[in-house]
Amino acid sequence: MEGFKILALAFILCGFQFYTAQCKSCTIEKNVNGTIAVGENTYSRQKCWAIPVPFGHFIQLQLKNMYQSGASCQKENVKINIAGTSDVYQFCISDSNTNPITAFDNVTITHYVSTNYYRYTGFTLEYAIKTIECLNRNSFECDNDTCVSEDRVCDGVKDCKNRADEIGCERVYQRSPGGERGGRVLVETEKNCCMVMEGEHPPGRRSSLLSIG
């Protein structure tokens, strides 16, 4: 579903000409996380990949490696452009710094090669799109790309699509003195939030705080 949303967003962007150049010539990545891997014998090429980032999300990218073709930075490089900014990140074979890049808008990755003879060239780049809430240290990770705020954990409402925020939560309520309009007040807080069976990987990170109400 997330992949479909991102693809739909790409078409919308193309329709409004915000992403026209990239949509016409670049491969559009449709998944919320993935790997772009290239490896071939060539002497000249320029290929690009466009990754739409939905509103309320961010993307992290990391160049894992570049094949040692022996070409200079001017003759072979990988560039990452972030839409709406002048930020351009260029990577060369000789670079040792491949720290992750975080962006809050659409990105374009371009692989450029221009040499005098055939050589094996390529690179591997990994990316992941997540909700903005995942940037908060105490947020609860529903899955690899979605988070909710800690006050939504064990509150009786399934905010995560996989319901991870309510798994294993045992709660006791009583009616508040305010009557019908007063709703319910949590009397006994979390007994066992987000319990995981032995050997299983937890679906999310447990929150230390709970909301009342």
TrEMBL record:
Keywords: Disulfide bond, Signal. Disulfide bonds join 142-160, 154-169. Residues 14-130 form the CUB domain. Pfam families: Ldl_recept_a (PF00057). CDD domains: LDLa. InterPro entries: CUB_dom (IPR000859), LDL_receptor-like_sf (IPR036055), LDLR_class-A_CS (IPR023415), LDrepeatLR_classA_rpt (IPR002172), Sperma_CUB_dom_sf (IPR035914). Residues 1-23 form the signal peptide. This is CUB domain-containing protein.
